[in-house]
Design a protein that fits this description.
Elements lengths: L17 E5 L5 E5 L5 E4 L8 E7 L2 E6 L5 E4 L5 E4 L7 E5 L5 E5 L30 E5 L2
Antiparallel strand pairs: 1-2, 1-10, 2-3, 4-5, 5-8, 6-7, 8-9
Protein name: Fibroblast growth factor
GO molecular function, one term: growth factor activity
InterPro entries: Fibroblast_GF_fam, IL1/FGF
């Protein structure tokens, strides 16, 4: 018997980037700017593209593709950005209305939220049932 080996080269899939759309106000896409600010814009920009990666089941990390900064939350409910992925992870929860909420894993009860003007809201002053915490991940094909 002659054995034939099938040599298949592995082609990695293209990177999957995400837009996080928040339905509050007129609707905003989360963006991470290189100067360290975070906010929402109605029409997505190059800074709105995010790389979301699974750390474990239901836990994700969020990084701005263009800015290269990681999104983190403090114990006081404030968002900040970091150049390095530190221990901050986000719990990703699918709600009953099919929107997704992102909360701090190390500080339970602190949520990622945008105001009706597209500004950040303090994560400790909002709850998971408020529309300002509801995001719709829009992935690239």
């Amino acid at each position: 018997w002659i054995r034939f080996s099938l040599c298949v080269s592995f082609i990695p899939p293209p990177p999957c980037f995400t837009l996080l759309y928040c339905r509050v106000g007129i609707g905003y896409h989360l963006q991470i700017l290189p100067n360290g600010s975070v906010g929402g814009v109605h029409k997505p920009t190059e800074y709105s593209w995010l790389k979301m990666f699974a750390m474990k089941h239901g836990v994700v990390g969020i990084k701005g593709v263009k800015s290269g900064l990681y999104l983190s939350m403090s114990g006081q409910g404030l968002l900040y950005l970091s150049l390095n992925l530190i221990s901050e992870q986000h719990s990703e929860n699918l709600e009953e209305n099919h929107y997704t909420t992102y909360s701090s894993l190390s500080h339970p009860g602190i949520y990622l939220a945008l105001s009706h003007k597209g500004d950040l809201r303090k994560g400790s002053s909002v709850g998971r049932h408020q529309s300002c915490t509801h995001f719709l991940p829009r992935r690239t094909p």
